[in-house]
Amino acid sequence: MGGELGRVEVKLRWDPSPYGEPPRHLDIMAATYSVDCPYGRPVYVVHTESRSPDGTINMSRHSETGLGLGFVEVMVLEFDRMSPAYGRVVVGVAIHQDGGPRAFGDISNAGVVVVEGYRKLQTEDFAQVAGATAATVAEFSRDTSGRWGLREMVRGFDADPVLFAAEMGSIRER
Fold it and tell me: What does the pLDDT average to over 48-72?
């Protein structure tokens, strides 16, 4: 995508469970990789209960039920402040599996949008990964001049949130 990225938001929406069913709970996650090992283990992972050590990636909004009121979960990534030690950030969404197995095809009105200010960079409705329980949606990487860019990276995984956090930046899907 053209131009250097600064402050980016990843916004997630989904509808609540039908009456009488357990809540459907999705989470945005971001795995950060070092310049020296962009496809190894993440240096750190940011999710609902955490933020990056330097505060450049954090959750500004969180939902455990998908209130059905638009984008109910938001992650903020500040690439213009991120340390040059980091060269790649992979963002994904995982479905909590309490209350029985659920895939994206079971979640009503699920979607993600990636924006920088008022500029929409990417949208995703999870249709291409309907059978997955977790999916990456975007890869941000630093080029040789130090500028951050975005690449759409929709890949499905069959993993719980903990396993997904460890695998989401791998070269191949499981």
Answer: 75
